[in-house]
Amino acid sequence: MSSQQPEIRRVTTHQLQAMKQRGEKISMLTAYDYSMARLLDGAGIDVILVGDSASNVMAGHETTLPITLDNMIYHASSVVRAVKRALVVIDIPFGYYQSNSSKALRSAIRIMKESGAHAVKMEGGIEIRDSVERILTAGVPVMGHLGLTPQSIYKFGTYTVRAREEKEAKKLLDDARILEECGCFSIVLEKIPADLAGQVAESVSIPVIGIGAGGGVDGQVLVMQDMLGITKEFKPRFLRRYADLDQIVTDAVSHYIRDIKSGDFPNEKEEY
Ligand code: KIV
After folding, report:
1. Which residue's CA is minimally distant from atom 2 of ligand 1?
2. Which CATH class for the 13-241 domain?
C-alpha cells in the first residue's frame, strides 16, 4: 500500500462549465482568512469567494464600499495559502474598476500577482463592459455579479429584492448575455426573483451562481459568517443557517472565563 496522499485536482473555470453541462450544482462560500479557508477547502467546497463582504463581516463596516484593494489582497493571499482544491475568486472592491478600464486592469493584475488567486469578480453589466473586456484580454478570468449589487447600495437605497419590474428584469437578462459575450466564466445573481434567475441560467451557457435567487440556477453561494450563524442579526429569507456558532463560541468563551476565575484552568496536566 502506498503512503502517498492522492493527488488533489484543482477546480478550474473549465470544470465549472462542465458541471453546468452535466447538471451538477456548484457550491461556493466566502472566506477571508487562512484558517476558515482551510476548513472550507477540506470539506470540498468548489469555489471560495474572497468577497468584499469582508468589509462588513471582518471589518465591521456598514457597507462594502470602504474596503480597499490592499485589504482585499491581504485577505485573498491568506485564503490562497490555505487552499489546495477550490477555485479562489476575489472581488475587485468599489472604486478600483468603475472609473476606467486601465485602472480596472491594474487592479486585476495586482490581485492576481500579489495574492495568487485564480479569478476576479466585478459588479455590473453594460456599464463595466470595457473594464471586463480589458481584464479578460490579459488572461484573467472574470466572474460577473448582477441583481442586488452591494457596491451600488446608495443608488438602490435598500437591500430589497431587485428586478421585480419588467424593465429592470429585461436589463438584467441583457446584461447577463453581455457578460457571457465578453467571456466571463460565470455570473453571480443576488436577490432577484427565482423565475428570472432560472431564465438567466437557461439563456446563458456559463454557470450562474445564486444568492437569494432560488434553486433554478447552477449553484449557490452564501456568506460564511451568515450560514455558520455568526451574524445572527442578519436574517434574510434566503439564508439557511447550518450552525449556531454564535452560541457555540459564546458558551466556549464563557466556560473558559469561568475556569480561569475558579482556578480550574490550567490544571497540573496542563503545566510544565
Ligand atoms: O461579497 C460577497 O460576499 C459577495 C457574495 C454575496 C456573492 O459578493
Report:
1. 51
2. alpha beta
